Amino acid sequence: MTSTDTTPLLGNGADGRSRRLSYKERIVGIFSIPEGQPGWIQSYRYFLLGSWSNVLLVFVPLSFISHNLNWDAGLRFSFSFIAIMPLAKLLGDATDQLSLKLGQTLSGLLNASFGNAVEIIVAIAALLQDELRVVQTSLLGSILSNLLLVLGCSFLAGGLMHDQNRFRTTAAQTSASLMTLACITLVIPAAYFMSQTIGEGGGLDPTKADQPGAIEERCKSGLLIISRGTSILLLLVYVAYLVFQLKTHARLFDEDGDDTEDCEDGQGLPRRHHSQDDVEEPEMAPITAGIALLLVTLVTSFAADYLVASIEETTERYNIPKPFIGLILLPLVSNAAEHVTSVWMAMKNKMEMTIGICVGSSIQISAFVIPLLVIIGWITGHDLTLFFATFETIVLFVSVLLVNLLVQDGKSNYMEGLMLIALYCVVALSCELPYVHPSRLPCAD
């Protein structure tokens, strides 16, 4: 009896031996439907009935109705907020089904990319409505959620299931270093602002919106130049990172790339061999998964637009700090699918995938999404900058610092997960206080 190799990374060469498929062959393979592939009816049945969270899809039409009938702002916000939760899960499901044919590295990249689809949609909707503070806080909140909450829960779950989890040090440190670079690019505009304001007669009071005058105009002009130039450089660095990850040094990010990798303690990281039982069979045909992905993204864009439109009135009527909504609430909803996937991968001891989802998603937001939105704002006449509030900049810096310290040894355990979760809880507690974030800062808009 002959067996069929179901591993998507391998094919048969002319000599009958297995060979590794190229990325082009993997992507082209998405559009081929082999025998036994699930039909479109079975695919959509799995897609719509495969999770109990899909019950919350009833809030999608409620979000549309409440917005068009101009119901109370709290209802409009709540309905749109809850509607995004199952939509984020569906985005994750469709992405996961597509990623089964792409291999681990591309799977992590695809999960990170479409896992950030909700954040990107919400940010673009807020940018076009000139809600620049919502753009900044929602994206920063997504970075913090991935680095602290999602990665912390993954380390905690993986540590409870296994005494110690190990991952490739070089790949993790490269990702963490790029995350540090992106963090520094947010610190520099804040340093520039402080140097300009403190140097003029003792500085400005950030709680007074009518004080800045000519100094604010000069500061804002300088911040725009710094932000736009930095954004272009970050986009170039991110493209280089993709080439590094997918082409030139793909073996560092692939769980099955090399037999061993030397760690700092001199011990080798053994290659993991997966049996056929570990190979997950797709429940959706690739084409139907792609169509579902596009449709859910479209519906999510409308729900996100309604959500952003109700934020201003909701914060005023119910006295909810706007930064708390951006930093905590929105990322909890939009990162739900990534959270589940990352924790599940950590429990299965697939830490390369976990690091790729959590840190990779944060890198994508900080080095690609935020710079891209600055450029889009430049084109559309919305002056979005890389200058964040001082509190937010410090929080991001210490979060990146803690993650760097924890991943540098290539090992994780449940105690490290608890550290990350504890820091996230401190940040959430701080964001609940209205006086921490003034509603308006000079040059922040």
TrEMBL record:
Record-level GO BP terms: intracellular calcium ion homeostasis
Protein source organism: Thelephora terrestris
Ribosomal protein listed as a keyword: no
Membrane topology: Multi-pass membrane protein
Location, primary (coarse class): membrane
Biological classification of the source: Eukaryota, Fungi, Dikarya, Basidiomycota, Agaricomycotina
Protein known as: Vacuolar calcium ion transporter
TM stretches of this protein: 46-65, 77-94, 106-128, 140-162, 174-194, 225-244, 284-304, 354-379, 385-406, 418-436
Region Disordered, annotated ranges: 255-281
GO cellular component: endomembrane system; fungal-type vacuole membrane
Keywords from the named record: Antiport, Calcium, Calcium transport, Ion transport, Membrane, Transmembrane, Transmembrane helix, Transport, Vacuole
Acidic residues compositional bias, start-end: 255-265
InterPro entries named among the record's database cross-references: CaH_exchang (IPR004713), CAX-like (IPR004798), NaCa_Exmemb (IPR004837), NCX_ion-bd_dom_sf (IPR044880)
Stored Gene3D superfamilies: NCX, central ion-binding region
Localization (cell): Endomembrane system; Vacuole membrane
